[in-house]
Amino acid sequence: MNGYQNDALAELARQLSAGLLRLRKGYIDTAEALAKIIDPDSEYPLEFVVYRLTGYRPARYKPIRPMTGRSIRHDLRRLILDLCDSLDLPAGAYGEAVYDTEGVARRFRISTKTVQRWRARGLVARRLVFDDGRKRIAFLESSLRDFASRRRRDLLRSARFSQMSDAERQEIIRRAKRMVDRTGCCLHEASRRLAARTGRAVETIRYTIRRHDRERPAEAVFPNMDAPLDDAAKEVIYRCFLHGVAVTSLAQRYARTRGSVYRIIHEMRARHLLGRKIEYVHNPQFDLPGAEESICAAEPPARDTKAPGGARRHAPSDLPAYLRALYEVPLLTREQERYLFRQYNYLKYRADQLRRDVDLNRVRSAVLRRIERLLVQADVIKSRIIRANLRLVVSIAKKHVHGPQELFELVSDGNVSLMRAVEKFDYSRGFKFSTYASWAIMKNFARSVPKERYLLDRFRTGTEEIMDLAAGLRTYDPRATSLAELREVLDVVLAQLSSRERSIIVGHYGLMETRQPQTLEQMSQRLGISKERVRQIERKAMKKLHTLLEPVHADLMR
Fold first, then answer.
1. Which has the closest alpha carbon to 208: 166, 240, 241, 262?
2. 3 to each of 216, 244, 281, 359, 400, how far by Cα in Å?
3. CB neighbours of 193 closer than 8 A, spacing ≥ 6?
4. What pLDDT score was predicted for residue 548?
5. Backbone φ and ψ of 284, nearest 5°
6. Is 94 exposed, middle or buried, given 0-12, 13-18 or 19+ CB atoms closer than 10 A?
7. CA–CA separation, 142 vs 96, rounded Å?
């Protein structure tokens, strides 16, 4: 059922709504009685709630985390409405006065919107059948008295306010327009200031302004309030929020209420989560009842570092200090490894399952927080697995160092392979992760190291290759051309490339007078892309230059 903050109480409401018809009215009354004694700042076990509602105390109950009193009171009010929906309970079934929303508003001389605010603050409502045969929201006299005793300040403040006259509305609109013209404040700020000056509630002022703007758009105080924002503007709002811009400032900048800005932020959070790629290795155990309790149970004990089999291996003396520090991280036992991989994949599985229920039209921030928390927990486990296996990358990389090949570059490439191996490893097959990761790292080195050496050879003769390309132009005579003319010809050649391709060719081969040749690693950092991507762009650019100059070169050879 939707609208519950605790899944256990949602399931309980479903069971009670399908139970015996003669018992449901009693459940409604006991739910209200229970809501009165619940302390919102305390925690309660599910067994307590079930016993107070039904009088039934199960011999064994699935253990769950205690629920907060505030969430229980919210869910009990929701449960009362669901039980009322499951039967046609007449208003005359109670031996006391019963009011609908309009009746409560007339009695206390307040607006129906204020009644809705009272409900959000704890006033218990039922859904009963009145004398006209229609079922609608109803309030018992006893419920109103209880709310009045607990929320006397709210009632007194609301009772002081009579219905706003037309003259008062016009004065509020006039003041709001003048305030916006002078200060450019947002709706929330204008409502807050006017509430302080008039003695009205902030919600009343806001409602008055919004209603005026809807009914008279030509004279609106905030004319762009209801205009829809495009996706680009929503993305800007979301990015600004992530970078610490206050919601009040965003509301003022975009002429929106704070509530609408929060809705936009939650919508964009949901969109980013829906667009995020979540990969995991599924296991049938994930779908079993009680999977979360068993998978997220206590971690197996760590290996005893004093035992001969668990002693830490000393780092090789020829390694830099940074790489030697990797050997301080203890290795994982087979049991720890299985535990971590199972939990890592299960957390991403749960996040993916929850993500499927996200509705962009009704985004629930609690669900988003749950998904984000699961993914963060999965990332923490992944980082731990990677740290425990970094020394494996170093040991394999040392065997592939050759000539100008840098150890740090090989370790960097090996780390990427290690991270991919963590994503793809299936712990249920019974293999050690180090076996799988070693194969993945060596396979990557077997493919990338020969290419790297080949490219390094090209780097040594790269200038000559570019000169040969430039020689393919009719205007270039290598025997009678100055350096300035040569550079001009090169500029003509390079102008055929895209800006990124040109930047990589010029940077790698040092074709600018003020710049030395750069390595692929240096260019990847400068351009903000991977080294492999730099390699791909360079090959594409060289192929493009050969294709462009091939017809000209053929003409010269005739």
1. 166
2. 35, 30, 32, 14, 59
3. 179, 185
4. 57
5. -55, -25
6. middle
7. 8
pTM of the entire predicted model: 0.50
CATH value of 461-557 in 1.10.10.60, 3.40.50.150, 1.10.287.110, 1.10.10.10: 1.10.10.10
Using CB atoms within 10 Å of the CB of residue 500, give its burial: 0 to 12 exposed, 13 to 18 middle, 19+ buried.
Answer: middle
| Entry field: residues in the chain | 558
The Cβ-side half-sphere exposure at 531, using a 13 Å CA radius, reads 16
Contacts of 477 (CB under 8 A, 6+ apart): none
CATH number of 284-302+320-454: 1.20.120.1810
d(CA 344, CA 3): 30
Q: Kindly give the parts of the chain with pLDDT less than 50.
A: 159-161, 305-311, 404, 454-464, 466-486, 488-489, 551-558
CA pair distance 224, 251, nearest whole angstrom: 12
Q: Domain map of the chain by residue range?
A: 7-131, 284-302+320-454, 461-557
- Residue-wise over 432-461: b if at least 16 C-beta within 10 A, else e? ebeebbbebbeebbeebbeebeeeeebbee
At residue 19, the 3 state secondary structure works out as coil
- Are residues 56 and 122 in contact, defined by beta-carbon separation less than 8 angstroms? no
User: What letter does residue 512 receive in the DSSP assignment?
Assistant: S
Per-residue pLDDT tens over the stretch 219-234: 888 877 667 788 888 8
Distance CA 207, CA 188 (A): 11
Give tens-digit pLDDT for 389-447: 988 888 888 877 765 456 777 888 888 889 999 999 998 888 889 888 888 888 877 77
392, 419 in Cβ contact below 8 A? no
How close are the terminal C-alpha atoms of the chain, in Å? 82
